[in-house]
């Protein structure tokens, strides 16, 4: 499998506190890697360091061999590492389709004004975008919602649309921060199915922070377990289930 992301010895210190301590892992094309660990383990700091929101004290992040470590969050997103935020904010008055299109416009040829003025190149790429957005919504089983206002969707549906909007521009790597938090059991299962499809059918490499351990066990190919900023275990869900250090330090029993 093609390696997308390579994180080597990444550390972050905040005035004396080591929030991230020498963490290394890789993420391959089409793979789902979960990051789990108790509160304060350093999961968000890891995401922030990869996406440029905090500056690592040491270590490096490469995407397909290209170093991202010193780039701004905007540049890192442009290179193809995209993330969703908790409460990422769709435009409630726009339809689902229009929201997904906002994720595509950044890379469309021609401006919104060109589209309004009916300039043919812009119109052609807009038609292409609409086609692409509809295909993606279909892949995510959300095509029947295309013309619904985003503000009228349930919380779980909004989060799915946010993910569709984020992947619309075809990023190789997607960072998902607790996509299933607060969702009903049915919506959680749907979210995990979507994560599977994005990886399996579109080849996106997905890094996932999630507290619901059972969901992680079902959705991830590999799991990184953190505690106090450091990696305490790494492996397949089966390996993690059997790992003594995880059972003792994280799950609280031996
Ligand atoms: N900007 C910051 N300044 C100072 N300390 C910080 C900052 N961000 C995080 N920390 C500290 O770094 C440590 C790791 O926090 P982090 O938020 O990465 O953990 P987490 O695993 O994401 O936790 P949670 O599951 O609660 O979100 C914590 O002790 C936290 O208080």
Automatic annotation (TrEMBL):
It comes from the Bacteria. One of its GO terms (molecular function) is ATP hydrolysis activity. Pfam families: ABC_tran (PF00005), BCA_ABC_TP_C (PF12399). CDD domains: ABC_Mj1267_LivG_branched. PANTHER family: CONSERVED COMPONENT OF ABC TRANSPORTER FOR NATURAL AMINO ACIDS, CONSERVED COMPONENT OF ABC TRANSPORTER FOR NATURAL AMINO ACIDS-RELATED. Residues 5-253 form the ABC transporter domain. PROSITE patterns: ABC_TRANSPORTER_2. This is Amino acid/amide ABC transporter ATP-binding protein 1, HAAT family. Keywords: ATP-binding, Nucleotide-binding, Plasmid, Transport. One of its GO terms (cellular component) is plasma membrane.
